[in-house]
Amino acid sequence: MAEQDIRWLQRLSNYERALAQLTRAVELARTRPLTELERQGLIQAFEFVFELAWNLMKDYFLYQGSYR
After folding, report:
1. Structure confidence by residue, pLDDT tens digits, 4-36
2. What are the structural domain ranges in the chain?
3. CA-to-CA distance for 49 and 68, rounded, in angstroms?
4. Residues 34/28, Cβ–Cβ less than 8 Å
5. 8/67 Cα distance (integer angstroms)
């Protein structure tokens, strides 16, 4: 159980950092047009944040005992 306690907290920390980075990228996109490479990076960052959010929720529900 201790591993699950740590796991969801680690995912939360990773999610917060990734979300902050995505937010900065979106703010940049609002100030000027992005290059093709920057746009691809923004899309990849969104996909990464989405995946982290999904795994964070799964691990948190496991920790709470409400997910099998």
Report:
1. 678 999 999 999 999 999 999 999 999 999 999
2. 2-64
3. 23
4. yes
5. 13
